Amino acid sequence: MFGLEKPAGQREPGRSGGLPKMASVGDFNVLSSSIPATKVELSVSCRNLLDRDTFSKSDPICVLYTQAIGNKEWREFGRTEVIDNTLNPDFVRKFIMDYFFEERENLRFDFYDVDSKSPNLSKHDFLGQMFCTLGEIVGSQGSRLEKSIVGIPGKKCGTVIVTAEELGCCRDSVLMQFCANKLDKKDFFGKSDPFLVFHRSNEDGSFTICHKTEVVKNTLNPVWQAFKISVRALCNGDYDRTIKVEVYDWDRDGSHDFIGEFTTSYRELSRGQSQFNVYEVINPKKKGKKKKYVNSGTVTLLSFLIETEVSFLDYIKGGTQINFTVAIDFTASNGNPSQPTSLHYMNPYQLNAYGMALRAVGEIIQDYDSDKMFPALGFGARLPPDGRVSHEFALNGNPQNPYCHGIDGVMEAYYKSLKCVQLYGPTNFAPVINHVARYAASVKDGSQYFVLLIITDGVISDMAQTKESIVNASKLPMSIIIVGVGPAEFDAMEELDGDVVRISSRGRFAERDIVQFVPFRDYIDRSGNHVLSMARLAKDVLAEIPEQFLSYMRVRGIKPSPAPPPYTPPVHVLQTRI
């Protein structure tokens, strides 16, 4: 399900008055429809907090803040209850947050000793704070992060344990089937060709299309095929949220006729086949005009079956590691690194496009890799001392051990390489793809998944070999992200992406779509806000990874490993106050 996700903010505007906006119906594509994030529940415990009370122990509360992407401003997200007289609180009140793999969500947990009933935090004693990302919590073993509390110089402030649990409703799918009776006849010569369109309601009262059935030709009493949809897509896990269903008569020219509509909710549908799930189809226009109007037919729910899906987070929680490798284009077409016009120009005041793409993607993926050691490769350069051309060299100069520590280590190796290799050519991708594929081929048990980020300025020289490498790699636990920097035409990259036409080599088609390409220029923020550019880039290139990951696991029949047993803190009988 994850691969379909888009930010919950990007929604189609709602329609008022039941008047059909035909473009949204005709153009609906299930693969690009927005699905809200999955939700995770965060539980917070602390050990050995500072004692600020003279005659008793502290009365702690935890306050969670999230950070806005653009201006870096911290906003309060929520507060736990206060627990009286303890330095080892296990807070009962949880934080429920939307979770997107492709977004970096910075979090700050502040702790206070509450001294009065005042909601103003400055009136209470500060006990310290902890910074992390949501990905760091989810990516920790068993989705349990333990970190020191900091913020008071010279004092040991204790530790905080944050555990993330995916909410069950986000993992359910439903298999539903509908039929209709006595729908209005819309076609002059035959009967109607009906289909259903499902919309979930948004917080602001607008509606977002989430499913469209097939068309059943020439009948006023259609029986549609059963279809499967995630509960997140249908109602964002809110069982009482309105679901609007519209009935249309299909027309070849796309100007489908509106027959009528009805509303329901997940809770109503979950009663299954019953008198409660027979719905009158109402056409508001007709109802307003005709006094004797009853309805435009009825729609009946025939079956409703709930299935629980395994999710991306189940594998991460079970210990699957995501290994990140970066490959950087060192061909001469990038321009001389000492010149400001070069794509590799080392500006002391801001990152170049290569650095931005690397940081944007790497800083998110590194949360899912426990050792934070990343192989960093270059291609298309002449290497010292003899000037031989290499399409697979270690940026740190050590071919036996190309690993760099963290994204900072990769950046350091990249800058170092620029000073000692000569940019050359041609632009060959196959060697670095095969490099990662060799590692991926050695661990096919689901314990590791490999993501290769290729950053390039352009036209590929070994298209046939690259296609063959991608087709071979599509059988392995790996995904490839290609970020194109600079002004070149990237037509060949679109072909590698395989979203429109599945990539093939010598008559063999890729087993799954594993390549995601984006041109960096589409993300340059006109206001010069590079933080926003990087966040948007990461969002788009990483959004497909969880679905590509799940498609590999499903094809291979690999189930997630059981998560380590949950952390059970020692029991304290404590007074709590809300």
From TrEMBL:
Family per record: Belongs to the copine family.
Domain C2: 20-147, 156-279
Region annotated Disordered, chain positions: 1-20
An annotated GO cellular component: plasma membrane
Keyword terms: Calcium, Metal-binding, Phosphoprotein, Repeat
Pfam annotation, one family: C2
Metal-binding keyword on record: yes
Cross-referenced InterPro entries: C2_dom, C2_domain_sf, C2B_Copine, Copine, Copine_C, VWF_A, vWFA_dom_sf
Name of the protein described by the UniProt record: Copine-8
CDD domains documented for this protein: C2A_Copine, C2B_Copine, vWA_copine_like
Name of the gene encoding the protein in the UniProt record: Cpne8
